[in-house]
Amino acid sequence: MTTSSTTGNSIRVAFKANNGKYITSNSDGNVLQASSDAIGSNENFQMYLQGEDRVVALMASNGKYVSNQQDGAVPLAAIADAISPTEQFTVEDWDPKIVVLFAANKKYIQLVDPTAALQAQGSPADAATFEIVLLSESSTPVETRLSAETPPTASPSPRAATPLSATPPSAFTVCFCGTACTRDEGEVSRDGSDKNIYAPATGYIPVRIHKEITGDLRATTPSVTVRGVGENDWAVPRDNSEPLVFNAPLNADPSLLSYVQSYSGGNQYSVPTQLDGWSAPALALHGANLAAASGKNIYNFIGHSRGAMEAIMAAWFIYFYGPDDVKHIPINIFAIDPVPGTGEWWGIFTQLPPNVVNYVGIYAWDMCVQPIDKPFMGLVPRPNGLMTGKLNEATIYNSWWPNKWKYIADNYVLTDPLKVGTEPQPTNYELYACRGRHSTVAGNYTADGKYDAANVSETVAPVPELVYKMARGYLTQWGTTFQTASASQQRVLALRKSINTFHRDFDIMGGGGTRTSALTARPYVRRLSSISGLNPFNSYYMDNVVGDPPYKMVYPVTSERTDAGWVKWNFL
């Protein structure tokens, strides 16, 4: 591990935390706590800029650098004499003039009771937020505020020298659209899709994310969109689509190349295809080839509905069909309500491949009215060996069945995350339950999750805004750079509070404020699965596997719930 006692340009700052207190190093062991009412010498930090990638090191008033001790097992403390990765933190914009800090152990800094100590153990949903107050040499605040996207010009420190800086990540982001969605979904209205059903701050989230990365809907680098199943690329023309990329740089199995050919180019609008989803592998292979051809060293995938399922398939195609210098490139997946639909579920989307290093899944709680919501059974893929401390290598299963590509992952089936068990929690594998329906979590803010723009509801909008902010937060953490600042002006905690305070529309979406029914088989509870195959009964009740919601959060459940899964869930 490289360490350094030299630093780059520096700025004197104080940090005001979301509890209204300033961070101070005036405690036993120089542990950092958000507990001071005013700025004094112990609340001063010299922030040394470690290159141009928003990485900083912090020196406290005792002349020591702030260190993430024991990889986040204990609070941050000002104890280090030199800078190593343990003393480096990434500053990420969260809200206007508000930032979060991300440590080298891939965790966000949060405030830990009872002393409001700073500790690197949080997810984006738990991250503490800070206002960075610029200070003069006399330690008095100046007017300007610092954000990660618009840093002020730094003055050279008296001890300035060559900064320690890692090579900035080089990420290519693929945004997979959901069924029946175009690549300008939510930005341009068309027959059957009014852009005004989407929250203004978020649009249709996969498309809006791409637009805010590139500044141009039709751009293909450093991110790209992939059209949805059964749709053409754009609102105009309505009768044609662009050719898909199948043949390179991935060396796909001939059975897969034969299967996908009919889904490239021409008029791909098809209601039957929207129902059966058979074009999804073609779109996944296309997205995988675009990523593999990008020349980047990180692939970030975000998808909604079948687009989220395609992201997992694309990762498998890269792992098994990619050149040696591509197949092990790390892949991060942000999945918004992944739904394969009815029919056969394949191992190439029920199991994460070895090259996926982070998985975040958002699952809609109120997509639960049976039997009409049965086709929207949620996919919860099995964590891979990297996440569970098990074997993290897979070999192709050469099935004798036609379309052998469907079964290439069947040699690599790990523990079902939804079953009862006592295994250690997986790392970098996060599952979130969220109020709303399948379309709500992707940007739709109508009161019923349907498609009439006359029925939009401001009390529903916090769900799309929260998921949008989480998507930006995770993608930024994984190396994606945004040209455009977040369009949501609401803070995360305020959005979560609103969701759990004004929940009437969400209750109605899912069949009422209580989900216990005199009817059998819990008709107002969503089903989830991690099991490949055709058996429609291979599923779990969502209110079983997630465990008990926090008592302060309003998630209607049934009295029959039992058997929580071994993987712990988060509630938004």
UniProtKB/TrEMBL annotation:
PANTHER family on file: FRG1 PROTEIN, FSHD REGION GENE 1
Classification of source organism: Bacteria, Bacillati, Cyanobacteriota, Cyanophyceae, Oscillatoriophycideae
Record localization: Cytoplasm
Domain of life: Bacteria
Protein name: Fascin-like domain-containing protein
Pfam families recorded: Fascin
Organism: Microcystis aeruginosa PCC 9701
Annotated region described as Disordered, given as residue ranges: 141-165
Entry's Gene Ontology molecular function annotations: actin filament binding; protein-macromolecule adaptor activity
Main location per the UniProt record: cytoplasm
Gene Ontology cellular component list: cytoplasm
UniProtKB keywords: Actin-binding, Cytoplasm
